[in-house]
Amino acid sequence: MEADEKIEKISSQTLISNSPSKRIRIRPLTKASLVLRGTLVVLVLLTAYTFYTIDVKDVNFVQGMIGTAKNVKVMFLEPHLSHFSFSHALYQVMITLGLAFLTTVFGAIIAVFLSLFAAQNLSSKRVSVVIKGFAAFIRAVPTVLWVLIFAVAAGLGSVAAVIGMTFHSISYLIKAYSESFEELDKGVIEALQASGASWWQIVFQAVIPSSISYMISWTFMRFEINFAVAVAMGAAAGAGGIGFDMFMASSFYYDIREIGAVTYFILVIAILLEVLATQIKKRLKVNI
Amino acid sequence: MIWVKSMQADIFKKKKLNTAVFILLVCFVTFIAATITEFSIAKGIASVPKAIQWSFSNFYPTKESLTKLPDILDKMKETLLISIAATTVAALLAMIFAIFGSTATRVNAFFGGICRGIATVFRNIDTAAWAMILLFSFGQSPLTGYFALFFGSFGFLTRAFVETIDEVSSSSVEALKATGASYFTIIFQSVIPSCIPQIISWVLFMVETNIRSATLVGLLAGSGIGFAFDLYYKSLNYHTASLVVIVIVVSILFIELISNYVRRVIL
């Protein structure tokens, strides 16, 4: 409203003074545009500062770039497996997919229950805030740290990896599920309450059935993310799978061709999962 | 009446059957996944109380570890700056690719397809994978982390920006085309101004994500806060390692606070 008035005022002034050189200000300075510009300026300044202060440790930037370009070319044009066979790689990909699947299933089961208490229309405000705060804390600790912390207790391997990775899945899915629960029409819950339905009946007969297609799409999207996470954890936290082979090729064998081959495996699976996710969303007519 | 009743019963039966099949399938795949990954559910459940017990008895900062705090903060600053710089520069490049890739603003379908294809490849190679690829040329330097984050962000942001442009400006582009506005006028006067709040929101999201991935990339590439954690963790200095975790958590929550505020105001 204010902005409109301002424009009107300025344009009427322009009419009165009748000077065509005076420009009409179409975008007045509001709080939103100030914050927007401020954010842009801060981002650019911080970037400039970073480039100014970055300690490159005698790495030649231009040479590095040329080297990377060459490496990427070799990687993609001459992929070759030298330390393990094609079927071994395929099996490792299955392990990575398995890790991602287990993480997603456990995350989804726990998240369904927690998100029922996180949705404000199904629980009290205090409980909702506590659970959402818990989820925010989980998200603030990077996945790799969760895995490494659990590795101390459970030893390096699939157990620590799955449990550690499950934390972020829980937090992500709590947010997704509870938001879709909160979209449920208030009248539906009230009508069921009035007819004497218990809380669990409301949840299983109204809340979950009405948001099931969203839940499936979000869960599958998390599966897609978990695949990438599982590759990374294989490399950084010894979780096994194709990520570990990539780590070995990179840090021990220095074999860029093998990295290329592994990258192709990862790319094919990742793109397949993406296509599948789009198909599922289309089938369920979900728009997220 | 009877016919209606039996049909209703059929629908419910079918629904129940579908649910049962779905649950069985998930159980079956879970079983297979647990077998090939050698994951034992019992061990997994047992590890949770064990980990909690361990963290309470070992994983807290002591007075001695606090002497390392300035060093850790310095590493955190480096990581934060690199994450922000990588995101900003990637956003700039992604914007160009998104403008040429979006159906609303592309020059032609062929070129648009190429732009989106390049972004798809970059997006589907994880930042951790990029870190391992870049280690060859840049070695253990902050540049490895910078470029790993840069490539990952570039792919993701291009996709996000393409969707934003498609959503926000396809009708205004058409309207401006009808008035005879030039291509650059349309981009700079309509497309960018109308998309900028969404774009900033995506950039802030990417900065948050990148700070999280930076820990992982640092572990692999030997720089920044990830390297600091790895150093203390591998030398079994868990008190200092916990201090690193606390610094990371506080920084991420702080950045999230700022970006949530900005998002609330501009959107």
UniProtKB/TrEMBL annotation, chain A:
Extent of the signal sequence: none
One Pfam family per UniProt: BPD_transp_1
InterPro entries: MetI-like, MetI-like_sf
Compartments in which it is found: Cell membrane
Record flagged with keyword Cell wall biogenesis/degradation: no
CDD domains, per database record: TM_PBP2
Domain ABC transmembrane type-1 stretches: 93-277
UniProt KW keywords: Cell membrane, Membrane, Transmembrane, Transmembrane helix, Transport
Principal place of residence: membrane
Transmembrane segments: 34-52, 89-119, 140-163, 199-220, 227-253, 259-277
Membrane topology, record value: Multi-pass membrane protein
Gene3D superfamilies linked to this entry: MetI-like (1.10.3720.10)
Protein family per UniProt: Belongs to the binding-protein-dependent transport system permease family.
Name assigned to this protein: ABC transporter permease subunit
